[in-house]
Predict the structure.
Amino acid sequence: MARYGGPARGVDTKSSSTDMVSEADREAERAIVELLRAERPDDGLIGEEGADESSASGRNWVIDPLDGTTNYLYGCPAWCVSVALEDREGGLAGVVHDPVGRETFVAERGGGARLNGEPIHVSEASELATALIGTGFGYEPAVRAGQADIVRRLLPQVRDIRRAGAAALDLCFVAAGRLDGYYERGVHHWDYAAGALVVREAGGEVVELEGGRFGVAAGPAGLVRRLAELVRE
Ligand code: IPD
């Protein structure tokens, strides 16, 4: 937050010229990793900005220190910090924190999902034709071309499509019923690990498309299967 809105420092690009990373991303990851190493020395860590430590406990922390980096660097208030804890069965705990909106989404396996302490629930949407759907786009031109094809097919079949720019927040918005569904091809594990648990614990479903690394679709059970089918086509 101290750096948000100020001059961007240490900005480099990663997978393509559109994929930015800044000193704020790196420092946020350093801070989270330092804390987790001290508190949970036996757990593994994987972070978007390079953290990669194997686990002696069977538990792993999956960290996106700044999801929505482009928004952050443009002073657009849709970015967050996403941290998940996973064990052999999948997501165990997840937190997505939006410091600008002062909203914290949390979930623990079997314990429900909450926003600033209040229980949240996915919408009751079951018809795609009246569903508000969120999505996102990757940074590689070839991936984007495929994503554009999906939007072209989907847009006439849904209420509307939103692209806010932070996958973890998109998922939490599904969990809170602010979006009916969300999908994205080419998304990374750290983008959705915490948000997916928040959706599941908010009564929704998350379908991993082609093994997870290649995408997710999320929403109420009645909607998500059809959404996943359309995205897979
Ligand atoms: C990105 C955002 C974006 C999504 C991209 C992600 P980053 O994460 O979540 O909404 O469409 O696929 O890579 O780069 O801002 O951490």
